[in-house]
């Protein structure tokens, strides 16, 4: 589907790595592999705030027969810690995917990343189409061992007067969901780990339901039990639900959420996209579906409307993609492309007669799309 307003608003060359949290720590050259997957919220000023994932990578990761990765480690007496390099023998590494390398010989899947991610607040005009300021002084970087390989993929929800931001924190200890809070959407306080190992894409609903906080979650695993023959559902990752009295302690909801449909391969893998927003029809949820293709797959954005009182009830959904990767947008930065067919939607804001939707394009840049509200109907 084509939209009248659809553009890249932030690309890797817009990032000044001399102001990166990693600056001065590594005696090697780094570059921006991607500035993408932005959380989005509206500030009290009316401007929009993107929380951008900056994946900072080694320019030359392979040296002396080893492939290297970046890791944060604690330093006694220094709350910011330091960044170091780890070396892995190339004989044990599968480097087919430019975003990561798999390590062989462990008996199970083990991987390391080719970049370390940190979060950068980028302020936009109220329509989301121009950058007002890049707040390097408010960047969010690893600060504990459970974040030693980076902080990724922010999602921002405003519940009452409080901004809540979920992120993925990556380490050998766990691949967990971590929570930050803010009174203004700009100054963030780390709260704690709120979901444990390999539970990705946690999206807090922008409002309470029956006095409780609700969230979409997406647990990962290597084993899924089959649905009965002829079922409308496909076994695999799905978007689950959880609820909480305070936003910190979460209990899984007993009913399933949005499940992959057996009638399409486009949701062979799926997960949450934007925090659900309450509309007159119910909760609007944008999510991603992945069609298998080569190493990464084809990522597209889809939508569902959920019942306002019981979000496990899906009132409407559409198998036609809302957003697909747009090669015309990335043509000016074609020389920096390393994967294709990927749009990963991560933020939404009200724009009057349309929604302002923020996405990562090609794991490379930030895309803003204005989508008319009439597109969504139960």
UniProtKB/TrEMBL annotation:
It comes from the Bacteria. One of its GO terms (molecular function) is glycosyltransferase activity. Keywords: Glycosidase, Glycosyltransferase, Hydrolase, Transferase. InterPro entries: Glyco_hydro_beta-prop_sf, Mannoside_phosphorylase. The keyword Chaperone does not apply. Belongs to the glycosyl hydrolase 130 family. PANTHER family: GLYCOSIDASE. This is Glycosidase. It comes from Sphingomonas suaedae.
């Amino acid at each position: 589907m084509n939209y009248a307003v659809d553009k890249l608003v932030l690309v890797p060359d817009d990032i000044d790595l001399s102001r990166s949290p990693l600056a001065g720590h590594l005696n090697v050259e780094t570059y921006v592999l991607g500035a993408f997957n932005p959380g989005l919220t509206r500030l009290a000023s009316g401007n929009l705030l993107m929380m951008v994932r900056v994946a900072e990578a080694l320019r030359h990761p392979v040296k002396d027969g080893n492939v290297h990765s970046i890791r944060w480690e604690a330093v006694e007496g220094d709350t910011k810690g330091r960044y170091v390099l780890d070396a892995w023998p190339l004989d044990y590494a599968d480097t087919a995917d430019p975003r990561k390398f798999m390590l062989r010989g462990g008996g199970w899947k083990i991987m390391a990343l080719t970049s370390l991610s940190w979060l950068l607040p980028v302020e936009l005009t109220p329509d989301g189409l121009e950058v007002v300021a890049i707040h390097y002084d408010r960047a969010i970087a690893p600060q504990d061992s459970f974040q030693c390989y980076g902080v990724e993929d922010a999602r921002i929800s405003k519940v009452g007067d409080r901004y809540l931001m979920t992120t993925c924190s990556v380490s050998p200890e766990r691949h967990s969901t971590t929570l930050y809070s803010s009174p203004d959407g700009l100054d963030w306080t780390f709260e704690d780990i709120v979901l444990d190992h390999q539970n990705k894409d946690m999206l807090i609903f922008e409002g309470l339901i029956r006095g409780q906080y609700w969230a979409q979650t997406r647990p990962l695993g290597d084993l899924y039990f089959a649905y009965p023959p002829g079922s409308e559902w496909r076994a695999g990752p799905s978007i689950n639900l959880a609820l909480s009295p305070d936003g910190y302690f979460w209990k899984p909801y007993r009913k399933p959420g949005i499940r992959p449909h057996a009638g399409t391969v486009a949701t062979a893998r799926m997960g949450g996209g934007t925090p659900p927003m309450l509309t007159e029809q119910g909760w609007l949820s944008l999510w991603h579906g992945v069609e298998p293709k080569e190493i990464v797959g084809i990522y597209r954005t889809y939508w569902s409307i959920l019942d306002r009182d019981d979000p496990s009830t899906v009132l409407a959904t559409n198998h036609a993609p809302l957003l697909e990767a747009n090669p015309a947008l990335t043509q000016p930065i074609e020389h920096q492309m390393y994967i294709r067919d990927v749009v990963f939607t991560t933020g939404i804001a009200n724009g009057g007669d349309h929604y302002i939707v923020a996405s990562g394009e090609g794991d490379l840049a930030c895309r803003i799309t204005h989508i008319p509200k009439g597109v969504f109907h139960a």
